[in-house]
Amino acid sequence: MKSLLLKDYYTLKKNLGVVLLFILGFCCLMSDDLVTVYCAFYAAMLPVTAIAYDERANWNSLAVSMPYSFRDLALGKYLLGYLLMPLVILVSYVAKLLSHYVFHRPAVSFSPLPIMMAVCGAAIVLAFILPIIFRFGSEKARLVYLFIVMIVAAAAVLLMRPLPFNVSMPALSSLSVLTAILFAAAVVLNLVSIRISTAMLKRRFR
Amino acid sequence: MKNAIEVKNLTKSFSGFTLKDLTFTLPEGAILGLIGENGAGKSTTIKLLLHALEADSGSASVLNCDVKDPAYAALKNRIGVVLDEAYFPEVLTARQVGKVLRHAYSDWQDADYEAYLNRFSLPDDKMFRNYSRGMKMKLAIAAALSHKPQLLILDEATAGLDPLVRDEIVDLFYEFTRDPSHSILISSHIISDLEKLCDYVAFLHKGNLLFCEEKDALLDRYCVVHADEAALRALPNSAIKGIRKNPYGSEILLYAEDVPASLTAERPTLEKLILLLSKGDAAK
User: Fold this and answer.
1) Between B184 and A15, where is the model more confident?
2) Do A65 and B50 touch (CB under 8 A)?
3) Of B77, B88, B103, which is closest to A6 when you measure between CB atoms?
4) What is the C-alpha separation between A180 and B109, in angstroms, rounded?
5) Does the distance separating the beta carbons of B53 and A57 come in below 8 Å?
6) What Cα–Cα distance (Å) separates residue A127 from each residue in A47, A115, B38?
7) Nearest-angstrom CA–CA distance, B108 and B129
């Protein structure tokens, strides 16, 4: 597995540098919590880019001749996503701190629950997108991903709009419960998704 | 004698093509050449052996392990594979390929890999996409040989390479089989390479295995004669194993014992034998 992650790291190294710089710049200009959410979802997109590189090189044709199972090949992309999400969020927080001290932007509050929710949400998106990409390839899957993100974004906008009646923000305890539910959903969906992706990858080959 | 590869009644169907009832063995320490026209089933056979494809029926075992066995994935540590293209990610350098493969193979040898890079004069800091085709294939061969494989599976590994590079690579494969526990399965269009290299030859034609035999025994069994129309008519139809007609006469493949005393026979090259058996078959 380490070799697959290392290969993806080398493949994405250039992209990753640009993305991290972009996030740094973005976070310096805006200190909204939505940036963190955006970062988590962007990180979930990076395994799709890695798969696109693999497809261009026809890497899987070689990889199946190596000591990897189809499950290893599928799981590698999930692990890449799980590793990149916290990394990208960490970068976004560093950027926010920088923007506070350098550009005197509002102070950054570190609130773990929204971060956790963002990561779980991105992991759920990953669970939906990867089986599709393993079945249909990265080009079609990118469209599906954009569609999913648009639905999620539209739902978020709708939920965050001031409502015509008086609604108070959920209590912290409700947020904790919601986060726990999201976390459980992310774990279950990802476990199921890994099995489906393995089957899809096999099917694509055989 | 142990077998490095055993294939029994292997069948795989696609729409418009079936690889039928394939049975052959590759003895340990030997080199088997898989010959056949485009679409004959060579790459399908190799994919079935690597378990990249699932057979419809039959069985295949490699290094005494059934390819369907879950343990086969780990056994691939002992198999070096070179496909028709070197499918490394194009932004990786040879050095990075080495670092990736070091973690992929349990018996990866950095020193061997370095030595092959030097031997092939491959720059280790140049991106793979900037390599020539010859360099790419050399890198794939270096990678395949650097984890102490017992078996090499080569699918058109020498295709598209110039004769000098091919000769260099064929020499390398010879070196590999100096160890009696090492074996090679090689598929190629370039029959002259296989003639130099192989102990056994398997000939696939339209998804059927026409023969799998020891190369020298095979070449000893057949003879090629050149005959005019009258001499051709004198030969019994059943004796003609292959024929190629041209404006000046016919080139006829016969069993050595069937050659009439009136005709001069020559030992066929592997290329001529294959050509007469496949194309000649249609002309008969």
Assistant:
1) B184
2) yes
3) B103
4) 47
5) no
6) 12, 18, 40
7) 24
Asked whether A134 and A204 are in contact (CB, 8 A), the reply is yes
DSSP-assigned beta bridge partners for residue B254: B223, B240
| DSSP string covering B168-213 | HHHHHHHHHTTSTT-EEEEE-S-HHHHHHH-SEEEEEETTEEEEEE
In terms of C-beta density within 10 A (0-12 exposed, 13-18 middle, 19 or more buried), how is residue B193 classed?
Answer: buried
Is the CB of residue B215 less than 8 Å from the CB of residue B258? no
Mutate to test the interface with B, among A65, A68, A198, A202 (most CBs of B within 10 A): A65
- The interface predicted TM-score (ipTM) is 0.75
Locate A37 and state its tokens. Answer: 């959410």
Distance CA B107, CA B94 (A): 18
The residue behind tokens 């899987």 is A60
Q: What is the pLDDT of residues A61-74, one digit of tens each?
A: 889 889 988 899 99
Residue B36, pLDDT > 90, answer no
Could you write out the DSSP letters of every residue in A145-174?
HHHHHHHHHHHHHHHHSPPSS--PPPPHHH
CB pairs below 8 Å between A and B: how many? 77
Tell me the C-alpha distance between B280 and B219, whole Å: 17
